[in-house]
Amino acid sequence: SLWMEEMNLEETFKKLQETVESLETDSISLEDSFTKYEEGMRLLKSCHDKIDMVEKKVLSLNEAGDLDEF
């Protein structure tokens, strides 16, 4: 979704943590837990994609010789 694309990595991790915490509560209904699980999986994919994009940028900088270390 669009709001996920607009969040930075730190915000996405924070939202993922909140989602996990809500899944760990005993008061959540089964239906809500499925919804939260799906949201968590989308957030996890978003984190992975953002990290992958950063890694590719760093690798391309290294190959160009513009950046030697992090």
- Count, helices: 3
- The low-pLDDT segments are none
The biggest beta sheet reads: none
Mean pLDDT: 82
Secondary structure: helix percent: over 70%
Portion of residues in beta strands equals under 5%
**Overall geometry:** rod-shaped
Per DSSP E runs of 2 or more residues, the count of β-strands stands at: 0
> What is the SS-derived class?
mainly alpha
Distance between the termini: 31 Å
Mind telling me the C-alpha Rg?
A: 16 Å
Helix/strand order = HHH
How does the SSE layout of this entry go?
Blueprint: H1 2-6, H2 9-23, H3 30-64
Helix pairs in contact: 2-3
Protein described:
- The protein is built from three helices and no strands.
- It is mainly alpha-helical.
- Helices cover 79% and strands 0% of the residues.
Key features of this structure:
mainly alpha; rod-shaped; 70 residues; 79% helix
Q: Could you give a short description of this structure?
A:
This protein has 70 residues and is mostly helical.
